[in-house]
Description:
Number of strands: 27
Helix content: under 10%
Strand content: 25-35%
Largest sheet: 13 strands, mixed
Radius of gyration: 25 Å
Shape: elongated
Amino acid sequence: MKASKSKFFLITLAGVFAVRAAETRLPIIARIEVQYSMVSHHCNIGDRVDFYNNSGSPQGNIYYAVPHLVYEPIVTLYNPYNTNLVLPNSRVLLANPPVGFKFKKNDEYLRAEWNNGGPFLGLGRFQTASESNPDVEKTMTLLLSSETGSQRPGGSIVLQPGESRRFMVWVEKAWTWALETGALSVSRSFFDFDLARNLTNTDGRTNNLFGAETVGAFYPGWGDFRAGFQTDGLSVASGRPAATRYPFETGTYGTTSWVAMKLTDSVLVQAKGVDTVLNPAIPDFELSLLAGTIQNPAADTRKSYSFSIGDLVQDQPVNPDSPSISRLFKISDLLQAPNNTTAGGKAPFASFVLVAKSTALQQRKFQAAIQPPSGELYEARLEERLQFIPDVSPDNGPSDYPRSGVVVTGVERVGNSLMLDIAAEPLRNQRSMWKIMGGSDPGAAFADDLTGRSIIREGPEGTGVYKLTIPVPADSGKYFVQIGL
């Protein structure tokens, strides 16, 4: 912010007391994102490898790979309080993310129903047992924790006043696709083709039934994008279109929901925000904060937010059957080799984002005794993604972030600290622009430079919400603080 637009305001400690109304202290789910990517893997099961080695044209499993749809939930928690928030357990559940997909092998749709403007299908339809089930739902339950000294999840979460922290599903340091598929047809933790494994709601590595294990990443850090929940069931075993098979793929290998493709061929993914739930009694999509003390999600829920597909903002094509996002990938470019310790060719293309509104955070609507409608608290978007980590920009946050000015939205004295809640234009971590001065006489120049001793925490990314912890004299009767931005 230019110097000519600097804002100064005074806070007096007279009459400021640390008095709190009784409240249940819960974190705020400031953001949940499901990032969608494409990746490809060579066949790993023996009979499949043998088939492409011996019957392929060209012969050799190394010349073929199977495209996978990847979906990675990312959760941001926020502590709006003026003291630490300690969470031994916490869970977040997302039900029925409202994004549907279609896929093509070169120029041919992988499901016959897509040829005539058929529906975009939700994630549940790409698991083997539910490929033809129009009533299937898809839920993701994350067990949130901090990483322990042994680089495993399970540590308590401690959020400082005003702190935000991002959580992603835990990926072991030694993870590779070969490790994931080492038991051949039994997936370990991320290969989500098997409905019975329930991998997006339990953890196949630790057998934790409370959710997939996550660890937190401190800002501005991000998590590990090498893995991610994924499925290869892009077609259907019950009626896979003949045009999607190579001439040599007959018998068993002509009726698979997974599609082996030559490395020189291409896969097209199309995505659109749609209601994936047919039952009108069930919300189109839903977000819930769970305590993490009872396995049953319904009994463990502390807060729940329901939405309709009308709440979703996306690019609207002229043709209602057209996708909002469409990307074409060459199979070789997507390849992640079995022992590759990196993300390989995995490529993001879209994200479903549900983000807390800045005004709702400023006005403490999340802490209200009577919960406002979910539409007043969150905005939902379907966005195109070109990279795993988005550029630092206010546009990553809610659309109602402050554009100008500085507003104090809360003040409280806690011991020898003055706690201020402030709404201001997102500074993109340029904290050196803040100037905090103190003094006992507002009519004189303020002599106490408190900037270096103050803590300035930016809240959820792009919201323009800040919490300042400013040290003040222990014996101050009247003391004034001037803040410049």
